Amino acid sequence: MNKLKVVAIILILVIAVIAAGQYYLAVSTHSMVNAVETAQAAYHRNGDSPDTQKKMRQFFSLWQKNSRILPMMIDHREIDIVNTSVAKLPAYLENNETSEFDAECDILKMQLAHLWYVEKINWENIL
Q1: How many domains does the chain have?
Q2: Could you list the mean pLDDT of each consecutive 10-residue stretch along the chain, which spans 127 residues?
Q3: Residue 127 included in any domain
Q4: Taking the model in full, what pTM does it have?
Q5: Could you tell me which InterPro entries the record lists for this protein (predicted)?
Q6: 49: domain CATH number?
């Protein structure tokens, strides 16, 4: 009977860790997508203004914080792809390349959303 209790407790802990990881991934990717959208909207309103720079720094800070934890849950290749997009954004801002900045922001939003979707527990990812 004691072995059964230990197994049950371990199973509950594993499920709790998986659920916490899924929650963290969903919340963090959603907040990063929102940060990119906010920076993109600021750029459309004001161009490369201090407000836009501030919004971009907020996103970069959020990405740096999350990019330390995400490799524990996500394939490193997925993170490398996002890092490439993140690295391009400052140059597009500096050179006032509006269409490239918009395109890279849209790509980055899709990549961030994909990070969550690829690790989401559903039948498509299990089968």
Answers
A1: 1
A2: 90 94 93 95 87 92 91 87 92 88 94 86 72
A3: no
A4: 0.84
A5: DUF4363
A6: 1.20.120
